[in-house]
Design a protein that fits this description.
single chain; mainly alpha; 2 helices; 0% strand; elongated
């Protein structure tokens, strides 16, 4: 991978789009988790909540990578 400024910008921009997608997926899963929990599917809701935790952890890693690339 090239270290050119254009390459870094393109990489950071692509990661930013992926991060936005990740946030959108997390919001959707959160809504589904709420619906499942309210309708007695507690174990499924718990699994969905665990997936949200993974999305949160990975979102932070992606954010950190974007910040390092943009420096």
């Amino acid at each position: 991978m090239s270290d050119s400024p254009e390459s870094k910008i393109a990489t950071a921009d692509a990661l930013t789009l992926l991060l936005h997608n990740q946030h959108a997926l997390a919001a959707a899963i959160e809504e589904i988790t709420k619906l499942l929990s309210e309708n007695g599917a507690g174990s499924v809701a718990d699994n969905a909540a665990a997936a949200l935790g993974t999305l949160d952890t990975n979102a932070q890693g992606i954010t950190d990578a974007i910040m390092r690339i943009r420096l």
